[in-house]
Amino acid sequence: MLTLQGLFRLAVLPIIALLLVQQKAFPLINLPHLQPYVSWLPVSIQSVIVSNRPSVTFSQGTVVGSTIRDTLKNPVDAFRGIRYALPPVGDRRFRRAEPIGASDNIIDASRFGPSCPGKQLLPIKGDSGNSEDCLTVNVFRPHGIEGKLPVAVYVHGGAYNRGTASMHNTASMVGWSDQPFIGVTFNYR
């Protein structure tokens, strides 16, 4: 008997194959919005879909970011919303953060993670709402530069009851700098 999930896969597979062919023919097409729908595909096929985006592989998996070009002097590779600890919910609430285990997952790091709960005085551009599952880090590097660079870490203020990593435009700071460096922001509770 065919399940709803099986039917979905049968219907979507030809469409995804067509998009993959398009992706190879037109490598400038960016398809990050497909990632949630193709997570059940083998990693080798998933990687084709996100191949034109900046990526870094480490023990948690392959983190796939985005390149910000907007109004910056120099383009910046942004890896946003990367979890640095297991979600502090349920039995882990109000306890020491626990590390994330090794994996071969592809992690979509194209947008900021949610802010930790708190009182916001003003709306913050780029804020993704709030959640107790908010322990994320954001890394910004100059596009096309490999190797070791100095690192600047921005710790947002807020007296432990407001604020978020997205309240500082770190990408702009990295993109307009005359000296290349890596910028890091993070949410904390």
UniProtKB/TrEMBL annotation:
Chain ranges of the Carboxylesterase type B domain: 53-189
Entry-linked SUPFAM superfamilies: alpha/beta-Hydrolases
Signal peptide (UniProt feature, chain positions): 1-25
Heme keyword on record: no
One Pfam entry name: COesterase
InterPro entries per UniProt: AB_hydrolase_fold, CarbesteraseB, Carboxylesterase_B_CS, Type-B_Carboxylest/Lipase
Gene3D superfamilies in the cross-refs: alpha/beta hydrolase
Keyword Hydrolase: yes
PROSITE patterns, per database record: CARBOXYLESTERASE_B_2
GO MF terms held by the record: hydrolase activity
The entry's keywords: Hydrolase, Signal
Name of the protein in question: Alpha/Beta hydrolase protein
Organism of provenance: Aspergillus leporis
